[in-house]
Specification:
The protein is mainly alpha-helical and about 140 residues long. Helices cover about 40% and strands about 5% of the residues. A two-stranded parallel sheet has the order 1-2. It is globular, with a radius of gyration of 20 Å. The N terminus is likely disordered.
Length: about 140
C-alpha cells in the first residue's frame, strides 16, 4: 500500500485532492505485469523474438516468456497479462510438453491471462474499430 502525501505541491493533483482528504487513509495500488512488445515496429519479428539488433531497441521476447513463465511456476500467486499472440505462438511451439502443461495450468488458474485476442497489440490511443478487428 502507498500512503498518498498531499503535502507535495503539484497544481494538477492539488485541484484533484479533496481538502478533507484524511492522510491516514491508504490507497491500494495493484501492479499487474504485462507485455507490450511491438511486432515489426522497428525490427522484424525474428529480431524482436531472438533479441538481435539491440542497438535499435532492446528486446528479446523469448527471454521475457522464459523468465516470466518460470517464475510463475515457482510463485503461484504471481499474475501476468500477455497480449502479443504472434510471439506467444512462436514461443509455445518451441516448448516441451511439460512446459505446455504448466502453462495450461497457469491459464486455467487465472495466473496467466491473454487479453485483446489479437496477433499483436492494436493502437489503443487513436483506434478505429476496424483496426482492432483486423488484429484478431
Amino acid at each position: 500500500s502507498l500512503l498518498i502525501a498531499p503535502s507535495i505541491s503539484n497544481p494538477i493533483l492539488d485541484d484533484a485532492i479533496d481538502s478533507t482528504y484524511n492522510t491516514t487513509e491508504f490507497l491500494n495500488v495493484h501492479l499487474i505485469p504485462h507485455t507490450h512488445n511491438d511486432i515489426g515496429w522497428l525490427k522484424t519479428i525474428d529480431q524482436y523474438y531472438y533479441g538481435s539488433w539491440n542497438n535499435i531497441t532492446w528486446a528479446g521476447v523469448q527471454y521475457i516468456l522464459d523468465s516470466v513463465i518460470g517464475r510463475m511456476i515457482r510463485e503461484p500467486t504471481m499474475k501476468f497479462i500477455y497480449v502479443e499472440i504472434a510471439f506467444f505462438t512462436r514461443w509455445w511451439n518451441e516448448q516441451s510438453v511439460a512446459t505446455q502443461i504448466a502453462v495450461k495450468t497457469l491459464v486455467k488458474t487465472g495466473n496467466l491471462v491473454f487479453i485483446n485476442a489479437g496477433w499483436c497489440m492494436n493502437d489503443e490511443a487513436a483506434v478505429y474499430y476496424e483496426d482492432s478487428i483486423d488484429q484478431m
